[in-house]
């Protein structure tokens, strides 16, 4: 038989790939995704059989668990394996003894990077796999998924380990970290800590990332730490101790699952800190609070709890308040009187989150019980205020006046109105009169707190005290309407890094 090109079929029958040198064949095999696919190449020729054992990057995925350890024993060393990944299949089950035996064989290969991932119910009777972690002398990076680290045997050390990731694991973290003298990066995700304590003690650690379940104690001792990212939940209250004197980047968020931290009718939902070593980015303290009219008049514990989280300095306070029609001035003044806030606050942003159904505060409501309107407060560092969702009711004007009076260095104030107020000439005029009477700062009024097209109107009062006038937003330098919608909150809360939050105020 002959093709049109003149080539004979016999010419195509030759296996030219198998005639290549072993080094070239290994380069081909190295580009295949896992050992299971590599093993299928043996159907091409006997020449391919066993070549996989000379690969330096070996990945077991969807391979029957009982066959993994015998396969590992076929791997030739030296040179050492650069990457060893073991992903146990969902349908398999194994005993603790089998897994520990496999880990011992893996450690003998001295991989530079090691990954071991097991299904959540991989152990017999659906239990977690309990491991006694063997010594990985030359390994620089380890990732473990769904294991219980019962112990680290006496004398075991990880002298070269620089990066450790523990996903959905639990066990003795203290013992493990004490065996890692060169550890630089630690990732803990979905970790169940003993007695609900998050304890990290490492003299060499430079980066710590934590995504934890419920926690009652946070204790971090890391004198070399430069980057800290942590997200955790608390049911009642938390005790916090952080020793990280040179930390530069912080993303810290705590979610309260119960209405345990209260001030009057208000309860704390979330508290966060964001600090970036970047010019123009103010360190942020973020507080989200909501109203529950059924709360008993417990002793206020907002301030004590918030102060626990102040592990770094900040100069921007952002308050997200779900008011449900209630007066919020007392809460704002209560927070502003916290010493670390009042002394360092340069910028205040208040985002008023309204319910779809308009609610009104009932007569003699406890939210009006404090005398905040007559309180004096010193905000000597405050330079900018932004209120988003301003409705123009009396208690909001009272708060606005207080801020203008007690912030002598105030340079700019931005008020973004709700749609209802934007259409009310009376309330708009009242706002302008307040600005003219009480403040010398540069003032901006947006006619709606939702995003508006270019060319929408804004009221601007100059710092020199001239009469305000309407000008197009496009003509006001550096003006960009700012609004975080309530539906975006969950996504914002769970973002891992502060750098992902790019929207900036005007």
Instruction: Figure out the total of helices.
Output: 13
β-strand number: 25
Major beta sheet summary? 19 strands, mixed
Low-confidence stretches: 1-12, 450-506
Average pLDDT for all residues:
77
Radius of gyration: 31 Å
End-to-end separation: 77 Å
Q: Helicity level, as a percent range?
A: 10-25%
- Principal-axis shape: elongated
Sheet/helix structural class: alpha/beta
What is the strand content?
A: 25-35%
Region (Disordered): 478-506
Protein name: F-box/LRR-repeat protein 15/At3g58940/PEG3-like LRR domain-containing protein
Domain F-box/LRR-repeat protein 15/At3g58940/PEG3-like LRR: 149-234
Description:
Residues 478-506 are annotated as: Disordered. It holds the Pfam family LRR_At5g56370. The chain is an alpha/beta fold. It contains 13 helices and 25 strands. Helix 4 (65-72) runs parallel beside helix 5 and helix 10 runs parallel beside helix 12 (425-438). The radius of gyration is 31 Å and the shape is elongated. The chain starts with 8 loop residues before the first helix and ends in a 12-residue tail after the last helix.
Summarize this entry quickly.
InterPro entries: FBL15-like, LRR_FXL15/At3g58940/PEG3-like. This protein has 506 residues and is an alpha/beta fold.
Layout of SSEs?
Elements: H1 9-12, H2 22-30, H3 35-39, E1 57-61, H4 65-72, E2 83-87, H5 96-108, E3 113-117, E4 129-132, E5 141-145, E6 147-151, E7 163-167, E8 170-171, H6 173-177, E9 185-191, E10 197-201, E11 207-214, E12 217-221, E13 227-234, E14 239-243, E15 249-256, E16 262-263, E17 266-275, E18 284-291, H7 302-308, E19 316-322, H8 329-336, H9 339-344, E20 347-353, E21 384-390, H10 394-406, E22 412-417, H11 419-422, H12 425-438, E23 442-446, E24 457-461, E25 469-472, H13 489-494
Parallel strand pairs: 1-2, 2-3, 3-5, 4-6, 5-7, 6-8, 7-9, 9-11, 10-12, 11-13, 12-14, 13-15, 18-19, 19-20, 20-21, 21-22, 22-23
Antiparallel strand pairs: 15-17, 16-17, 17-18, 23-24, 24-25
Helix pairs in contact: 4-5, 10-12
């Amino acid at each position: 038989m002959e093709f049109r090109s003149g080539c004979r079929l016999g010419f195509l029958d030759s296996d030219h790939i198998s005639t290549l040198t072993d080094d070239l064949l290994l380069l081909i095999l190295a580009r295949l995704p896992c050992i299971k696919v590599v093993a299928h190449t043996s159907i091409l020729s006997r020449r391919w059989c066993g070549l996989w054992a000379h690969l330096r990057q070996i990945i077991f995925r969807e391979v029957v668990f009982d066959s993994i350890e015998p396969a590992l024993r076929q791997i030739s060393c030296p040179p050492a394996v650069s990457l060893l990944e073991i992903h146990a299949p969902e349908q398999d089950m194994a005993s603790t003894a089998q897994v520990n035996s496999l880990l011992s064989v893996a450690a003998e290969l001295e991989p530079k990077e090691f990954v071991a991932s097991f299904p959540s119910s991989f152990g017999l009777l659906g239990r977690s796999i309990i491991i006694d972690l063997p010594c990985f002398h030359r390994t620089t990076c380890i990732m473990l998924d769904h294991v219980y680290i019962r112990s680290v045997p006496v004398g075991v050390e990880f002298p070269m380990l620089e990066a450790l990731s523990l996903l959905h694991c639990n066990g003795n973290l203290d013992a493990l970290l004490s065996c890692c003298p060169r550890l630089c990066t630690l990732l803990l995700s979905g970790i169940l800590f003993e007695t609900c304590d998050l304890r990290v003690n490492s003299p060499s650690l430079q980066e710590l990332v934590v995504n934890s379940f419920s926690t009652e104690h946070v204790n971090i001792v890391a004198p070399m730490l430069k980057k800290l990212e942590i997200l955790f939940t608390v049911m009642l209250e938390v005790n916090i101790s952080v020793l990280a004197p040179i930390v530069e980047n912080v993303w810290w968020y705590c979610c309260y699952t119960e209405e345990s931290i209260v001030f009057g009718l208000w309860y704390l939902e979330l508290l966060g800190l964001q600090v970036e070593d970047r010019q123009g980015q103010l360190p942020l303290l973020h507080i989200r609070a909501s109203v529950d009219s059924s709360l008993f008049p417990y002793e206020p514990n907002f301030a004590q709890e918030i102060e626990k989280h102040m592990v770094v300095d900040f100069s921007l306070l952002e308050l997200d308040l779900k008011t449900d029609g209630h007066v919020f001035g007392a809460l704002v003044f209560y927070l502003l009187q916290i010493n670390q806030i009042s002394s360092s606050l340069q910028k205040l942003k208040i985002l008023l989150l309204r319910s779809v159904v308009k609610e009104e505060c009932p007569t003699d409501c406890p939210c009006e019980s404090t005398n905040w309107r007559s309180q004096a407060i010193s905000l000597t560092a405050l330079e900018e205020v932004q209120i988003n969702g301003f409705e123009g009711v009396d208690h909001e004007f009272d708060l606005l006046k207080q801020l203008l009076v007690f912030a002598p260095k105030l340079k700019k104030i931005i008020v973004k109105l709700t749609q209802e107020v934007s259409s009310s000439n009376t309330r708009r005029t009242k706002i302008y009169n307040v600005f003219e009477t009480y403040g010398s700062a540069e003032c901006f009024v947006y006619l709606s707190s939702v995003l508006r097209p270019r060319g929408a109107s804004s009221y601007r009062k100059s710092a020199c005290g001239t009469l305000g006038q309407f000008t197009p937003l496009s003509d006001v330098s550096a003006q960009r309407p700012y609004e975080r919608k309530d539906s975006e909150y969950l996504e914002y809360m769970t973002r891992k890094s502060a750098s992902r939050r790019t929207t900036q105020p005007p």
